[in-house]
Amino acid sequence: MERCCMNTDEINMIEELEKDFIRDLAEFFKVFGDVTRIRILQILLSGERNVSELADSLSMTQSAISHQLRVLRQNDLVKYRKDGKTVFYSLDDDHIRTVLEQGMVHIRHKRGYVE
Question: Which of 24, 40, 71, 91 could potentially form a cystine with 96 if both were Cys, beta carbons 3.0 to 4.6 Å apart?
Answer without folding.
Answer: 91
